[in-house]
Amino acid sequence: MHTPTPPAAHDEVIALTQAWLEKAVIGLNLCPFAKAVYVKQQIRYVVSTARNTDALYEELSAELQHLHQSDPADIDTTLLILPELLADFLDYNDFLDVADEAIEDLELDGEIQIASFHPDYQFADSKADDIENYTNRSPYPILHLLREASIERAVEAFPEAEEIYEKNMETLRKLGLEGWMNLQLLAPGHKRK
């Protein structure tokens, strides 16, 4: 029987997600654009309460609308964190198509896009234990809602944006699996595959 995460635990989910941002995303400079919005507290953290993908679609739609209607100076980006749903990476990956449909249904394509993070993230044509996969590994499945205007501004400020992917791969190769594990970013109950 599935026991839902109590609301009091939502603070713990957000705290672990923030630790991942601080130690991995910002600390390893995996995303050179993340630090500014983190420091300015322009990231909205939402812990999903959905128990099925239909409910998640509704939550995602509401968060897409919320981000779209918010002042970017207040909320530049949203992390929709899924501690109870889509733990299997293949199920999560399949849901990304549904997430893209939500953007289209709300006529937000060209304005908001979704970046994907998962504890078992695996790039196509990679092995599950390849260190490069860890560039997109997070403590929980996350749908990262991003304003396209913010991405464009960030890319203008960082002219070598296309090199970020390769730099991240090199960073993680140097860090190695043991170094990543020392960051202690696994959610409670998640075992490394």
Q: Summary?
A:
With 193 residues, the chain is α+β, with helices and mostly antiparallel strands.
Number of helices: 6
Instruction: Tell me the Rg in angstroms.
Output: 16 Å
Largest sheet: 4 strands, mixed
Residue runs with pLDDT of under 50 for 5 or more positions? none
Helix-residue proportion: 40-55%
Q: What gross morphology would you assign?
A: globular
Distance between the termini: 23 Å
Order of helices and strands: HHEHEHEEHH
Average pLDDT for all residues:
90
Q: Structural class of the helices, strands and pairings?
A: alpha+beta
Percent strand equals 5-15%
DSSP E strands, number: 4
Organism: Herminiimonas contaminans
Pfam families: DUF1415 (PF07209)
InterPro entries: DUF1415 (IPR009858)
Protein name: DUF1415 domain-containing protein
